[in-house]
Amino acid sequence: MRPHESSIYSVMKRNARLYKNNSAVVAMAEKISHIQLLEQTDRLAAGIHSLGVRNGDRIAVLGKNSLQYLYLYGAAARTGAIMLPINWRLSSEEIQYILSDGAPKVIFADPEFQESTIPFIEASQHSITCFSTGRKEGLFRDFNDLMARTQVSDTGYHGHDDSCLIIHTAAIHGRPRGAVITHQGILWASLCIHRLWNLGPKDINLSMLPFFHVAGILLVSAVMIDGGCSIVMPSFDVEAALKFIEKYNATVFAEFPPMLASLLDGAQKNGCNLSSLRHVMGIDHPDTVKRFEESTGATFWAAYGQSETSGLASIGRYFDKPGSAGTQLPFSEVEIEDESGNILGESQVGEIVVRGPQVFKGYWNLKDDTEYTFRNGWHHTGDLGRIDEEGYLWFEGRASEKELIKTGGENVYPSEVENVIRQHPMVKDVAVIGVPDPQWGEAIKAVCVLDSGSHLSEADLIEFVAHRIARFKKPRHVLYVSELPKTVSGTVDRQKIKDDYGQEKM
Q1: Is this model's pTM higher than 0.70 or not?
Q2: In the sheet that 477-480 helps form, which strands lie side by side, from edge to edge?
Q3: What pLDDT, on a 0 to 100 scale, did the predictor assign at position 2?
Q4: Could you tell me the CATH number of the domain that includes residue 29?
Q5: 161 and 43 co-located in one domain
Q6: Does residue 386 share a domain with residue 362?
Q7: Is the residue at 265 inside a domain?
Q8: Minimal CA–CA distance to 366: which of 180, 160, 182?
Q9: Are residues 77 and 124 in the same domain?
Q10: Could you report the per-residue pLDDT of 100-121, keeping only the tens digit for each?
Q11: What CATH number is attached to the domain comprising 384?
């Protein structure tokens, strides 16, 4: 390793030296200083290392945001392990698939989610050590058992090109793919936010997005770079969030619809003061953004990114170019490519391709997928866009191979929902599309053909899906038609379905 290489752990170590007793984390009304954060992280790293966890081993976490979760991020970086954060909103079968794919050596889980891990643990041919982030129960040992050691043995030096975490993206071919993200990726994307927002030791991040989402850990890292503090919320709650903003003078946060609108409504109703806020990043409706900026004086930032780009590829002030996703990050490149791999000119629509320090390493155990996404030396996002004459990126939909619905910050591939719906014995054919939704940004709509003579209520079909995959993937709208339009080649004409049924009347 070269001397200048850095990791999330090295940021914690620097903060403990420079900002010592300043607050680093507030969680469940408990304040932890930077020096305490490092001490607890080192204790946990020693405990994890004593279990035989070494460089490249995976540590799975299935739980809501917590202080222990942040300790684990630091301890994994200290030991060279790779975090495997799992979306607790997924179904038990989906959780088991991710565990099987990531093959963790240790599992940490909240009590309410532990049952979903049992089939994987019992079927595993390798010994897996399990810890509870709450009460001790069954196979799960007490988290505090790992905190007893005070000395950290030499675990080697782990730097910026080492893998930091594996985040499983939405299922493009029926199964999610694990995006392998480096310390460099997270730190570089965080540093760009840090520079643009002029963050310092007095900044406080209201951490409402889940830590299994790359944007959740990105904002924690951005304020941590120069000694700031994060308020850790287990999940989004309007009243609690407003209370934290006022009590601790929170300055920044990231959001997905309908979080910001809910906060503004709550603040107006209860007379809450949001004037401490400086910057917010997310995706939202123009009216909501305008209302936010006018009522707070803060700045709303639009961005484009994926797990594969450590959460960020471009960013800009929303009203500099309303509707755009800002401009590319420093020392990174964003271009538009046609189907033949040619870079297109200004305002031409094609696939968004990215390269730079924030781009991921590849897909976990998927060599062919990794080679395909990195063809011609670029990460191919599967998203369509254009770059205007001033360098602003405009999102223009998704390539057919990677059609995606983004609902409330969660990614859902239509093919995954379609595969589940086709399992229903009354369904003959189906096409799933995204439709505009004022609350969630996009909602899932299933356009179905039933077998002749069959009768199936919309509610029954929605619940059929909800019992088989994560509930956020269930259709919000169901429409029954006599047949699906087809192309001349006989395949389902998805574009005509979008044109005919894609504007849901709300």
Answers
A1: yes
A2: 427-437, 441-450, 477-480
A3: 40
A4: 3.40.50.12780
A5: yes
A6: yes
A7: no
A8: 180
A9: yes
A10: 999 999 999 999 999 999 999 9
A11: 2.30.38.10
Name the one residue in this structure whose structure tokens are 């969030």: 241
CATH code: domain of residue 484:
3.30.300.30
Q: Report DSSP letters for 76-110, one per residue.
A: HHHHT-EEEE--TTS-HHHHHHHHHHH--SEEEE-
Q: Is residue 51 included in any domain, yes or no?
A: yes
DSSP string, 445-500: EEEEEEPTT----HHHHHHHHHTTS-GGGS-SEEEE-S---B-TTSSB-HHHHHHH
Domain range spanning residue 45?
8-182
What tokens were used for 339? 């189907």
The rounded distance, in Å, linking the Cα atoms of 270 and 246 is 12
pLDDT tens profile 210-262: 999 999 999 999 999 999 999 999 999 999 999 999 999 999 999 999 999 99
Contacts of 197 (CB under 8 A, 6+ apart): 203, 222, 252, 278, 279
Neighbours of 341 (CB within 10 A): 13
Contact at 8 Å (CB) between 421 and 430? yes
For the beta carbon of residue 337, count every other beta carbon within 10 angstroms: 19
DSSP string, 305-346: --GGGTT-SEEEEGGGSTTS--EEPTT-EEEEE-TTSPBP-T
Unique residue bearing structure tokens 């120069």: 226
- Of 368, 401, 434, the one marking the end of a domain is 401
Whether residue 211 is contained in a domain is answered as no
Are 98 and 84 within 8 A, CB to CB? yes
Please count the structural domains in the chain.
Answer: 3
Rounded Cα–Cα distance for residues 333 and 351 (Å)? 14
Distance CA 360, CA 357 (A): 8
Same domain, 126 and 76: yes
- Those residues whose C-beta lies under 8 Å from the C-beta of residue 198, and which sit 6 or more positions away, are none
